[in-house]
Amino acid sequence: HKPNIKDWLLHNEIWYIFHYIRHLRYVEYYKNTNKNKILFFYHFFRYKRLGFKLKITIYPNTIGAGLRIYHVGDFIHIGAQCHIGHNCTLLPGVVFGNKYEKATDTQIIAGNNCYFGLGAKIFGSIIIGNNVTIGANAVVTKDIPDNAIVGGIPAKVLRFKEINIL
User: Fold this and answer.
1) How far are the Cα atoms of 59, 71, 118 from residue 23, in angstroms, in the given order?
2) Strands (DSSP E) along 5-130, which ranges?
3) Residue 159 forms beta bridges with which residues?
4) 131 CB burial (10 A radius; 0-12, 13-18, 19+)
5) Which of 18, 86, 120, 164 is 20 to 30 A removed from 70 (C-alpha atoms)?
6) What sections of the protein cross the membrane (predicted)?
7) In this predicted structure, what is the pLDDT of residue 72?
8) What is the spatial distance between Cα 30 and Cα 49, in angstroms, rounded to a whole number?
9) Are 142 and 164 within one domain?
């Protein structure tokens, strides 16, 4: 069997990630507008199926536009009580969550342009600023200011990014 572009595209994890995010956005749209229940259930089924296959759990209406997932690995979990800004990058093993998934008093809020390294864990009621980079295997348990680079267990600020404004 000679390899071709169609086989490569259909068995590439980037293709699956793209469709997972696409179905997630459709689920968000139909859930928020209540326009078409049949299309909602179709996209919800596809979103759940791809999430199971990729080991990704991202609840609807938790992440802003510009989500980037470069590749899949162990798992990615974004809890229902999270709010993540625009242009967020998630690597495998990232967990946003609380001890109890049904807890409504704790929220995790992350700003825009955040990068979450391989295996980063964010637990508790936390506010993460804009332009934050969280290193690999960091465990975040406290608030993080804007433009910070953090790492370690527990995570602490290693340094701040230089922002040049012209």
Assistant:
1) 12, 17, 24
2) 56-58, 68-69, 76-78, 82-84, 89-90, 95-97, 108-110, 115-116, 121-123, 126-128
3) 149
4) middle
5) 164
6) none
7) 80
8) 18
9) yes
If you compute the radius of gyration of the chain from its CA atoms, what whole number of angstroms results?
Answer: 17
Domain finish residue from 36, 54, 72: 54
Q: In this structure, what token pair is assigned to residue 82? A: 């999270």
Angle at which helices 37-54 and 13-33 cross, to 10°: 150
Task: Please give the C-alpha separations between residue 21 and each of 6, 78, 161, in angstroms, as whole numbers.
Answer: 21, 13, 29
Residue bearing tokens 């259909």: 10
Q: Are residues 141 and 61 in the same domain?
A: yes
Structure tokens that stand for 17 in this block? 């990630």
For residue 105, the tally of other CB atoms under 10 A from its CB is: 7
Query: Which pLDDT band, with edges at 50, 70 and 90, does 166 fall under?
Result: low
The phi and psi torsions of 12 (rounded to 5 degrees) equal -95, 135
82: containing domain: 57-166
pLDDT tens, 54-109? 889 899 998 999 989 888 878 888 888 889 999 999 999 898 886 555 656 668 88
Distance (Å, whole) CA 100 – CA 106: 10
- Output the average pLDDT for the chain: 87
Place of tokens 């804009």: 130
